[in-house]
Specification:
Length: 185
């Protein structure tokens, strides 16, 4: 007996929304090699146009793109196609955005650069892993700061000026912090 996702039928529609043109092309080709019919979009407005005629079985949405956040697309996609399995990809992983993505309708949340095998495995998972090891190491102050900034940014719907005001810091300082990669622990 073969698993459906290991060899999906060629009618499995997948919407891939990412502003990184090279990454999305390479990932799209890899997923097409796995029998998905891949439709690419590079921002939320173009993805919304695609969704007027496409009812995808699966969607991969980048969190941070120019213009509206991928979270807005997750909300819209889940509302019009609640059966679509949605994975949110991001280079800026944080607990706050992961929780928010799941609340808004995403199935899973992966950190970039995720490859096609990781994505297909995430689509196959129906539930969480209760056996995942729990770390005894406390989170560093730098990581806590990163998480807090991400939470405030989500609450401000991605508005950096408003987030900076709420955090009591200069907008440029916040922008510099956001350009750095997230702290691991």
């Amino acid at each position: 007996m073969t698993n459906k996702m290991s060899n999906p039928s060629p009618t499995e529609q997948l919407l891939l929304v990412d502003d990184d043109l090279i990454y999305s092309e390479v990932l799209g080709d890899s997923l097409a090699d796995r029998n998905f019919v891949v439709t690419l979009a590079h921002d939320v407005p173009s993805a919304l146009i695609v969704l007027e005629y496409l009812n995808p079985n699966y969607a991969i949405v980048d969190l941070k793109m120019p213009g509206p956040s991928g979270l807005e697309l997750v909300t819209h996609l889940h509302k019009i196609h609640p059966e679509t399995k949605i994975i949110v990809l991001t280079s800026y992983a944080s607990i706050a955005t992961a929780v928010e993505a799941i609340k808004l309708g995403a199935t899973h949340y992966l950190t970039k650069p995720a490859d096609a095998d990781e994505i297909v495995a995430a689509f196959e998972r129906e539930s969480g892993d209760r056996y995942i090891p729990i770390s005894n190491t406390p989170i560093s102050v730098n990581r806590l700061e990163w998480e807090h900034i991400q939470k405030v940014l989500v609450n401000c719907e991605g508005n950096i000026s408003e987030a900076a005001r709420r955090l009591g810091m200069h907008r440029r300082t916040l922008q510099r912090k956001l350009q750095k990669h997230p702290v691991k622990h």
